[in-house]
Amino acid sequence: MDTGEYYFLELNPRLQVEHPVTKWIAEINLLAAQVAVGMGIPLWQIPEIRRFYGTEHGSGYDAWRKTSVVATPFDFDKAESKRPKGHCVAVRVTSEDTDDGFKPACGKVQELSFKSKPNVWAYFSVKIPLDGFQATPML
User: Fold this and answer.
1) CA dist., res. 82 & res. 31, Å (int)
2) Is-contact 58 68, C-beta < 8 A?
3) Active-site residue flag, 14
4) pLDDT, tens digit, for every residue of 66-105?
5) What distance in Å separates the CA atoms of residue 94 and residue 10, rounded to the nearest whole number?
6) Where are any strands of DSSP class E within the chain?
7) Measured on CA atoms in the order 12, 87, 127, 101, is the torsion positive or negative?
8) For the ranges 24-28, 37-41, 45-49, 110-114, which has the lowest average pLDDT?
Protein backbone atom coordinates (compact mmCIF):
# COMPACT_ATOMS: atom_id res chain seq x y z
CA MET A 1 0.00 0.00 0.00
CA ASP A 2 1.46 3.36 -1.02
CA THR A 3 1.22 5.76 1.90
CA GLY A 4 3.49 8.40 0.40
CA GLU A 5 5.89 8.00 3.32
CA TYR A 6 9.63 7.52 2.84
CA TYR A 7 11.96 5.46 5.02
CA PHE A 8 15.73 5.20 4.93
CA LEU A 9 17.76 2.17 5.97
CA GLU A 10 20.87 4.33 6.07
CA LEU A 11 21.42 8.06 5.94
CA ASN A 12 24.92 8.98 4.85
CA PRO A 13 25.38 12.74 4.29
CA ARG A 14 28.77 12.40 2.60
CA LEU A 15 29.71 11.60 -0.97
CA GLN A 16 30.54 7.98 -1.59
CA VAL A 17 33.62 7.00 -3.58
CA GLU A 18 31.20 5.88 -6.31
CA HIS A 19 29.80 9.39 -6.86
CA PRO A 20 31.50 9.70 -10.27
CA VAL A 21 29.11 6.94 -11.43
CA THR A 22 26.13 9.21 -10.79
CA LYS A 23 27.90 12.19 -12.31
CA TRP A 24 28.71 10.20 -15.45
CA ILE A 25 25.28 8.75 -16.21
CA ALA A 26 22.99 11.47 -14.80
CA GLU A 27 25.18 14.48 -15.66
CA ILE A 28 24.69 15.94 -12.18
CA ASN A 29 27.64 17.28 -10.22
CA LEU A 30 26.68 15.92 -6.80
CA LEU A 31 29.32 17.91 -4.94
CA ALA A 32 28.13 21.21 -6.43
CA ALA A 33 24.50 20.27 -5.73
CA GLN A 34 25.29 19.44 -2.08
CA VAL A 35 27.10 22.74 -1.63
CA ALA A 36 24.20 24.64 -3.24
CA VAL A 37 21.63 22.96 -0.98
CA GLY A 38 23.89 23.62 2.02
CA MET A 39 23.86 27.31 1.05
CA GLY A 40 20.06 27.27 1.18
CA ILE A 41 19.37 27.09 -2.57
CA PRO A 42 16.28 24.94 -3.19
CA LEU A 43 16.89 21.72 -5.13
CA TRP A 44 14.37 22.77 -7.80
CA GLN A 45 16.46 25.87 -8.53
CA ILE A 46 19.74 24.03 -9.34
CA PRO A 47 20.27 24.06 -13.15
CA GLU A 48 21.60 20.47 -13.40
CA ILE A 49 18.66 19.13 -11.36
CA ARG A 50 16.19 21.05 -13.53
CA ARG A 51 17.85 19.69 -16.68
CA PHE A 52 17.63 16.13 -15.29
CA TYR A 53 13.87 16.62 -14.80
CA GLY A 54 13.37 18.30 -18.18
CA THR A 55 12.63 21.79 -16.84
CA GLU A 56 15.88 23.55 -17.73
CA HIS A 57 16.18 27.26 -18.37
CA GLY A 58 19.32 27.51 -20.47
CA SER A 59 22.87 26.46 -19.83
CA GLY A 60 26.37 27.82 -20.09
CA TYR A 61 28.38 30.05 -17.80
CA ASP A 62 25.33 32.04 -16.68
CA ALA A 63 22.90 29.12 -16.17
CA TRP A 64 22.57 29.92 -12.45
CA ARG A 65 21.61 33.55 -13.17
CA LYS A 66 19.09 32.55 -15.84
CA THR A 67 17.55 29.86 -13.64
CA SER A 68 17.24 32.05 -10.55
CA VAL A 69 15.28 34.66 -12.50
CA VAL A 70 12.72 32.47 -14.30
CA ALA A 71 12.60 29.12 -12.46
CA THR A 72 9.49 28.06 -10.62
CA PRO A 73 9.15 25.16 -8.18
CA PHE A 74 7.98 21.79 -9.51
CA ASP A 75 6.76 18.59 -7.89
CA PHE A 76 9.59 16.01 -7.86
CA ASP A 77 7.09 13.20 -7.25
CA LYS A 78 5.21 14.03 -10.48
CA ALA A 79 8.14 15.12 -12.66
CA GLU A 80 9.60 12.68 -15.19
CA SER A 81 13.36 12.40 -14.98
CA LYS A 82 15.38 11.81 -18.13
CA ARG A 83 16.94 8.44 -18.82
CA PRO A 84 20.51 8.05 -17.60
CA LYS A 85 23.23 8.36 -20.25
CA GLY A 86 24.72 4.91 -20.84
CA HIS A 87 25.63 2.43 -18.17
CA CYS A 88 28.12 2.44 -15.37
CA VAL A 89 29.37 -0.16 -12.94
CA ALA A 90 31.42 0.38 -9.79
CA VAL A 91 33.30 -2.60 -8.45
CA ARG A 92 35.35 -3.08 -5.31
CA VAL A 93 37.35 -6.29 -5.04
CA THR A 94 38.24 -7.47 -1.56
CA SER A 95 40.03 -10.50 -0.14
CA GLU A 96 38.02 -12.52 2.39
CA ASP A 97 38.35 -15.92 4.02
CA THR A 98 35.05 -17.73 3.39
CA ASP A 99 35.98 -20.48 5.88
CA ASP A 100 36.49 -17.98 8.70
CA GLY A 101 33.28 -15.93 8.64
CA PHE A 102 34.39 -13.78 5.68
CA LYS A 103 37.08 -12.06 7.75
CA PRO A 104 39.62 -10.05 5.73
CA ALA A 105 42.37 -12.26 4.34
CA CYS A 106 45.78 -11.64 2.84
CA GLY A 107 47.82 -13.05 0.00
CA LYS A 108 49.81 -12.13 -3.09
CA VAL A 109 48.12 -10.58 -6.11
CA GLN A 110 49.23 -12.85 -8.95
CA GLU A 111 47.88 -10.82 -11.87
CA LEU A 112 46.00 -7.57 -12.47
CA SER A 113 44.73 -7.12 -16.01
CA PHE A 114 42.34 -4.55 -17.43
CA LYS A 115 41.37 -4.16 -21.07
CA SER A 116 40.71 -0.46 -21.65
CA LYS A 117 38.29 1.05 -24.17
CA PRO A 118 37.96 4.69 -25.28
CA ASN A 119 34.73 5.22 -23.30
CA VAL A 120 35.77 3.23 -20.21
CA TRP A 121 37.07 4.98 -17.12
CA ALA A 122 38.75 3.04 -14.35
CA TYR A 123 41.11 3.49 -11.44
CA PHE A 124 42.90 0.99 -9.28
CA SER A 125 44.45 1.12 -5.85
CA VAL A 126 46.74 -1.68 -4.72
CA LYS A 127 49.12 -1.43 -1.78
CA ILE A 128 52.57 -2.50 -2.94
CA PRO A 129 55.05 -3.49 -0.23
CA LEU A 130 58.77 -3.76 -1.03
CA ASP A 131 58.56 -7.49 -1.78
CA GLY A 132 55.85 -7.19 -4.46
CA PHE A 133 52.04 -7.05 -4.66
CA GLN A 134 50.50 -8.04 -1.35
CA ALA A 135 46.85 -7.83 -0.28
CA THR A 136 46.74 -7.29 3.48
CA PRO A 137 43.74 -7.35 5.82
CA MET A 138 42.43 -3.96 6.90
CA LEU A 139 42.24 -4.63 10.66
Assistant:
1) 20
2) no
3) yes
4) 777 778 898 989 988 888 777 776 666 777 788 888 888 7
5) 22
6) 96-97, 103-104
7) positive
8) 110-114
